[in-house]
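Repro:
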Amino acid sequence: GTAGVIVVARAGSAVDADPVSGTTYTANAAFGIGTQIGTGNYVVYNGTGTSVNVTALSGSTTYHYAFYEYNTTGMCYKTPALTGNATTICTPPSTQASIFTSSAITNTTMTAGWTRGNGNGGVIVVARSGSAVNADPVNGTTYAANAAFGSGTQIGTGNYVVYNGTGTSVNVSALTGSTTYHYAIYEYHTTGICYKTPGLTGNATTTCTPPGTPVSVSGSATGQNTANLSWEAGSPAGSTTVSYYWVVGTNSSVTYGNGVAQGNSTGTTASTSALSAGTTYYLRVYANTSCNNTSSGYGTSAPFATSASNVLPGDANCDGVVNVLDIVSIINIIMGSGTGQFCFGNADVNNDGSINVLDVVATINIIMGGN
């Protein structure tokens, strides 16, 4: 061109507007100051030279250029233009964060701390469960942080931003018990959002509280074959998710898997319809925590009995006859050492709702032919 060349620059995407013939444009090598053509296309050079040093750029940003030769007569620009692009670099902080610390660790929370480096933008903290952080932040990218693990921006897979700021600690929540969390901490400058890598790393493991033995264990018959079952959490209650395993059997040492009815629940109530009429049962319950599969001991209820279908007063052992063996069965129940089948409705001869010495006396009277 007899007049020279104008150079148009645009950030982030290709120049999308050509100069208009007959129009003179003012150039400025400081990006964004020269004449704007269309939207975002700035004239950075107008002359007869072969290069321009463009300034006022952002770090880690791609700038696109279009070069137009033109003649002085009629200010006539040649299109389409020569095009090209280049990406600026960024200058990260010179000093990374240092001295990782962890404190205030519970089943579901912990505090991660660090000593600041010299990033003028602050630090971002990335956390990952079970293994080391395996993806760094990308220069030029802003990340949203959330101290609730899993809620902030995810970088790569499983790496979550839990903090972005100028402080020296973050209380991370929404964690799982008995799990190791790994951290990477990156100082960054605001110009170009330039992160210093590699990050400071560290890790800490959440606690796990084994559950105590369930208390207030109780069974209550609601018919010949049914009963309502209940219990309360022991002390401590345990973490993170506690399940209760219950079993009903005819002796006070029955174990899960060997009863006449059993099940599990995260609640503290259950029911069963698998019982036999006129039979004494025990409910036993133990607790198990999900965080390390630790179980408590069994909590055991007092005996409870279903309603009898055919009551035979005095037939405590349910064998169809009333004899001295029934007296032995009743005494064993009173003493807390009863085993085997026991028909509460038969043994409660005086119908007072409990098994006691009066039922022993009443059974003896039946055997002796008295009232």
